[in-house]
Amino acid sequence: MPVRKYRKRTYRYTTKYRRRSKKIKKIKKLVRIVTFSLLGLLLSSVSFYLYTLTINLKKPFASASNGIDFNSNFYNSSKPFNVILIHVSDTRDLHSDIKQLYLFRIEPGNKKVLLVKIPVETQTYLNKTIGNGYVSKLYSLGNYSNNKLGVQYIVNFIKKTLAINVDAYVVYDDQAINKFKDININVSSKDLPKSIKYSYFLKIGDLFNISRQNLLSDLNSVEMFKILSDTKSVSLPNYIYKELTPKELSSPKEFDFFWQNNTENKDIFYERLLVTVLNSTDTPGLAGWGSRVIKNAGANILEIGNYEEPLDSTVIYTDVNDNSALLKYLVTFYDVDLIYKPSDFKKDPFLAKRSDILLIIGKKEALDY
Predict the structure, then answer these.
(1) Which of 36, 61, 95, 107 is the most exposed place for a label (fewest CB within 10 A)?
(2) pLDDT value of position 66
């Protein structure tokens, strides 16, 4: 068998090998140092961002601006949510005119968003106290004598005119818009979801700081963050932008047709409950308005009529489960305190029993109608 020859390494070969080995070790060490440095920098940046985000989310969104909460509804990325966006001249001036008024609706379950622009430079019926007037004056009129009811006047106007609930509000002014533009945050009403960039979330600290200083709202930071995130995920076909005309604002049928055909509350719709609405006041039209509230919420009307015994507050007769989505909606909308069993309705027990919900509107609702 041939014998394998072993080549003896020379001193020069060994030295060269050692030098090369040391050089490779130095390069590997340098690579490790650079890699760990970059990784550490990245982790530090991410940690700082998450820390900043956590701090901002925990801070109340509107406490610095004394935003008043008009209801207890909380946005949780699961149920439809209506927000009114009120653009005034100056949030520090209680007697500012409304420059623009929007109704923003998000249906997270359907990944759908509606933005309705309400005409403000038009005369329409405002409420029983004011009568006819410009929508743009509602904020100022509500804050008359520093009563600070400007937002409440607008909320009541939306509820009475459009027969839909308002879950939250945001009041902003020109200064807020300009500050957002300074940090390159611009949103477009024509394509709202697409105009919310991912880069905005990297500016979350600035965004919330500006908001707390220049906005009035009853939303908190967690809600705002969720609304922005959920709106961003809406595709263009599921975004609807509409500018109401003065005629549509004063014509319930036209608005109701648009609203009922472009919105959906699955929790209410699938319950298939029948509601009877009675008017216990001397104000005509309240039962008809009540039926609009039911239909615009996604439920069905059994019948409407009058109730001879005058009531101060709205009451409900029903035996549906307390977890009913429609019942919760009506309790919030009408601020109902008392819910009775159908057997307690002595005037017409049959009517109460064949209605899933019997709603009797009281005098309190008539005051702003």
Answers:
(1) 36
(2) 45
Residue 62 neighbours by CB under 8 Å, 6+ apart: 212, 215, 216, 217, 218, 219, 220
Beta bridge partners of 82: 105
* Distance separating alpha carbons of residues 61 and 352, to the nearest angstrom: 44
CA 177 – CA 64 distance, rounded (Å):
18
Q: How far apart are CA 319 and CA 350, in angstroms?
A: 14
pLDDT tens, position by position, 187-229: 888 889 988 887 777 787 788 788 878 889 988 878 888 998 9
- What b/e string do you get for 97-113 counting C-beta neighbours within 10 Å, with b at 16 or more? bbbebbbbbbbbeeebb
pLDDT higher for 15 or 274? 274
What's the DSSP call for residue 305?
Answer: E
Rounded Cα–Cα distance for residues 143 and 301 (Å)? 37
pTM of the model: 0.80
Beta carbons within 10 angstroms of residue 347's beta carbon? 11
Q: In what order do the strands lie in the sheet with 216-217?
A: 216-217, 168-172, 81-88, 98-107, 112-118, 239-243
228-280 pLDDT per residue, tens: 899 999 998 999 999 999 888 888 899 999 999 999 999 999 999 999 999 99
> Is the torsion defined by CA of 165, 169, 172, 176 positive or negative?
negative
Reading the block at residue 49, the tokens are 């961002």
Q: State how far Cα 90 lies from the chain centre.
A: 22
